[in-house]
């Protein structure tokens, strides 16, 4: 899910999130998960503001 930079701070991300939650609930999902890049602090802050939390972390190395 992404919102064009031109349309940030207009509530679009929140509406997309709410629609995703509604879709999952309608299908009796137990949880909703997403992947976000660690460097994307703005997105992480946004998802935390919606009540999401970090469940696990994937770590990698270049070889």
TrEMBL record:
Keyword terms, alphabetized: Acyltransferase, Transferase
Keyword Cytoplasm assigned: no
Listed PROSITE patterns: GNAT
InterPro entries attached to this UniProt entry: Acyl_CoA_acyltransferase, GNAT_dom
Residues covered by the N-acetyltransferase domain: 1-63
UniProt superkingdom: Bacteria
TM region(s), chain numbering: none
A Pfam cross-reference name: Acetyltransf_1
Listed PANTHER family: N-ACETYLTRANSFERASE, UPF0039 PROTEIN C11D3.02C
Name of this protein: GNAT family N-acetyltransferase
Protein species of origin: Paenibacillus phytorum
